Amino acid sequence: MFRPDDDQATLRRPTRWQSYVVPQGWETFTPEDHEVWDLLFARQVELLGSRVVAPFLDGIDLLRLSHPGIPELAELNAILEPRTGWRTVAVPGLVPDEIFFAMLADRIFPVGNFIRRREQLDYLEAPDCFHDLFGHIPMLAHHDFAEMVEHVGRLGQAAIAAGEGGRAARLYWHSVEFGLAMEKSELKILGAGLASSFGESHFSLESDTVERVPFTIRGAVHTAYRHDAFQPRYLVSRSLESTVSAILELTPERLLEL
Ligand SMILES: [Fe+2]
Fold first, then answer.
1. Order of all β-strands in the sheet with 186-189
2. Could you tell me which of 205, 251, 252, 255 has the C-alpha nearest to residue 230?
3. pTM score, two decimals?
4. Who surrounds ion ligand 1 at CB < 5 A?
């Protein structure tokens, strides 16, 4: 039904991320859903071994993610929020970029309220709670990385306001989502999209058909990425700390000039 008054009100009111939040509905997950989580978790931990930066593995332990079954967000938040001020909320699927960056700027991480089916272990149309929780949340227990992701949220809001949201999206993609990083002279996984992917985690480190180039802010901002396939080029941070510092020093004005 067309309700002009409501539409007017919607136009006047800035969109708030809170309107995208839904209950996690943890009690509605079936035993099969929890089994799928356990299967994915065990498989991915074994596959990663020590191929991921150490703070990721620390985060898994700190947040007790190895506890069987899909994590209940309230329980997870009870550990995460006092530690770094980050909190998870449930969403029904991908949120628009402006909402996503607004959430990050408030130290809120959106988590899909669904999990893939057993027949789709390696194929995902939209990020589910395994990608969001296993891939992203461990690093949000790391104080400096947590601060960096909040800053990316602010940069994203500023870039979108200037009509240049793609710059922030690419920066996010090549660090938080698909970044690699050197750690004690070894190449490691940093990004959540790699840490949570069965196929791409090894591919990103071992394939000799992809490019791996040093991470720079300018490089990240101007390197295109793929949504629908493995990345053809990975950006490799000299260290986790160097990328965190570089991003924290980046101002919105500089992001738009690069
Ligand atoms: Fe992600």
1. 186-189, 180-183, 233-237, 211-214
2. 205
3. 0.92
4. 192
C-alpha 214 to ligand 1 mean position (Å): 22
**What's the gap in Å between 125 CA and the centre of ligand 1?**
12
Dump pLDDT digits (tens) for 57-92.
999 999 999 999 999 999 999 999 999 999 999 999
d(CA 21, CA 3): 24
Cα→Cα distances 26→33, 74, 248, Å: 10, 10, 35
Closest CA to 77 of 67, 63, 66: 63
Residue type, 110: P
The owner of tokens 């660090």 is: 175
If you measure from the C-alpha of residue 149 to the centroid of ligand 1, how many angstroms do you get, rounded to a whole number?
12
> CA 233, CA 178: separation in Å to the nearest integer?
10
Quote the ligand 1 centre to 2 CA distance (angstroms). Answer: 36
- Spans of the chain below 50 pLDDT: 1-12
The b-or-e profile of 196-212 (16+ CB within 10 A means b, else e) is: bbeebbebbbeeeeeee
Beta strands 180-183 and 186-189: pairing type? antiparallel
In the reported structure, the alpha carbon of residue 193 is separated from the centroid of ligand 1 by a whole-number distance in angstroms of 6
Q: What is the pLDDT of residues 22-58, one digit of tens each?
A: 999 999 999 999 999 999 999 999 999 999 999 999 9
Tell me which amino acid residue 241 is.
E
CA neighbor of 211 nearest in space, from 186, 174, 168, 169? 174
Task: Tally Cβ neighbours within 10 Å of residue 83.
Answer: 15
β 87-91/108-112 pair status: parallel
Cα gap 43→25, rounded to integer Å:
25
